[in-house]
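Sample intake sheet
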Amino acid sequence: MAKTSKIGIAGEYALVSELIKRGYVACVTDKNTPKFDVLASNQEGTKFAAIQVKTSGGDYNGEFLMSKKDEDWFHNDNGEFGRVFFAFVRLNDVGNTYWFISARETAKSIHDVYCQYINDPTKKRKDTPMRAIKPKKEFPTLKDNNFEDLNL
């Protein structure tokens, strides 16, 4: 598997490729776009989604690394983020797996899991900007390749 810095880029392009194969319009944004990596729409251009991509490759334990800034969607939600999603991309040699969760739901989960972690009375832990999420654990009804949840 490629270097970690390249895995994220591979995940973005894999997602765009899969969206196009499924009949959507999609593109990777430039790297100066702070809140999302991919823009997608239906063919008519009447429905849009902004997507922040998190990618895992190689050894996979169900966890995706996140950061405190990914949690900010929860704290700063003023109703504008209804069409923003996190895409969790699992790169495999025999076919990739994709999971889509709204930015607000993802951020709330990141926040809740981190609060449990940092406030565990049996451990002495320091605050850190690093976060993690296990989508299939935090969202047990989440289906693989749930592209329909983008509602495009």
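Comment: The helical segments are 4-21, 68-75, 103-118, 135-138. The domain at 4-150 is CATH 3.40.1350.10 (Trna Endonuclease; Chain: A, domain 1).
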